[in-house]
Write a structure and sequence with these properties.
Blueprint (H helix, E strand, L loop, with lengths): L1 E5 L7 H7 L3 H5 L6 E7 L1 E10 L4 E9 L8 H13 L5 E6 L3 H9 L3 E6 L2 H5 L4 E3 L2 E3 L2 E7 L1
Parallel strand pairs: 4-5
Antiparallel strand pairs: 1-2, 2-3, 3-4, 5-9, 6-9, 7-8
Length: 147
């Protein structure tokens, strides 16, 4: 398994990024300013994008694994890698997601704990209703992790 920082042609990973954030103009808001990492195990498995929030915090804006490779530990391995990568630069990493039990459990298993909520984030910022595991996403649930 190897992880690379991607500095050019980030849009070539759009198909994968859209699995986690299905509206391209929302991805465009953070893709170029964020740091992108790709995890390979023979071929590409998972990508993520991290952005600086302030001097003490960064945010995991997108992490996505191809469907056929999900559940094999690739996303968790990438989160462990970026947590180590940023521990000397930031005190805290945030991640925002919808209120779906499986995804919240995944982040909690990666060391995140619930932080705060932004009401109506998905209904206010996306041009169509968003669903995950059959649940409509309305509020953005933020989790945080000490680095």
């Amino acid at each position: 398994m190897r992880i690379e920082k991607i500095t050019k042609n980030k849009k070539q990973y759009l198909d994968l990024l859209l699995l986690a954030d299905e509206q391209e103009d929302m991805i465009d808001r953070y893709l170029e300013t964020g740091d992108m990492f790709a995890l390979y195990n023979d071929d590409l498995k998972t990508v993520c994008v991290v952005v600086a929030i302030d001097k003490e915090s960064c945010e995991l804006k997108n992490i996505a694994t191809y469907t056929k490779y999900q559940g094999k530990g690739y996303a968790k391995a990438l989160i462990n890698y970026i947590s180590e990568y940023y521990k000397n630069s930031y005190k805290t990493m945030l991640v925002g997601t919808g209120e779906t039990p499986a995804i919240l459990s995944f982040y909690e298993n990666c060391g995140f704990e619930k932080s705060h909520c932004i009401k109506n984030f998905f209904t206010d910022n996306y041009d169509h209703p968003m669903f995950e595991d059959g649940i409509q996403l309305i509020d953005m649930i933020y989790l945080k992790k000490k680095l």
